[in-house]
Amino acid sequence: DRSLDYEGSITIDMDLMDAVGLLPHEQVQVYNVTNGQRFETYTIAGPRGTGTICVNGAAAHLVETGHKIIVANYALFTDAELPGFVPRVALVDERNRITKLT
């Protein structure tokens, strides 16, 4: 989904955010698999259990409803922290319901 009338961000169902460890206002990169567009924005918590993923503001011009996107974020670790790091990946269906969580 998309909403042009907002200053920016991507709204994501808070259940999805919790599943992968994203926080509200955290910086993310969005990769549009459908059209190749890439952009950086920040997260806004959406209503739980809705499957909401909505690109807001100017970035909404880069995504159409139904496009497949990847939302990614990154972290910096010290050498001591790195051995304990396990990335979290959620794959979702067409209604943004988690089908696989690693």
Overall geometry: globular
Report the span from N to C terminus: 25 Å
Largest sheet entry: 6 strands, mixed
Name the strands of the widest sheet in spatial order.
1-5-2-4-3-6
Number of helices: 1
Q: Roughly what percent helix? A: under 10%
Using only C-alpha atoms, the radius of gyration works out to: 14 Å
- Tell me how many strands there are: 8
Care to describe what's here?
A 6-stranded mixed beta sheet has the order 1-5-2-4-3-6. With 102 residues, the chain is mainly beta. The protein has 1 helix and 8 strands, in the order ββαββββββ. The radius of gyration is 14 Å and the shape is globular. The longest helix has 7 residues, at 14-20. Helix content is 7%, strand content 35%.
List the helices and strands and how they pair.
Elements: E1 2-3, E2 10-13, H1 14-20, E3 27-32, E4 38-46, E5 53-56, E6 69-72, E7 90-92, E8 98-101
Parallel strand pairs: 1-5, 2-4
Antiparallel strand pairs: 2-5, 3-4, 3-6, 7-8
Give a brief description.
It is built from 1 helix and 8 strands. The protein has one helix at 14-20, and strands at residues 2-3, 10-13, 27-32, 38-46, 53-56, 69-72, 90-92, 98-101.
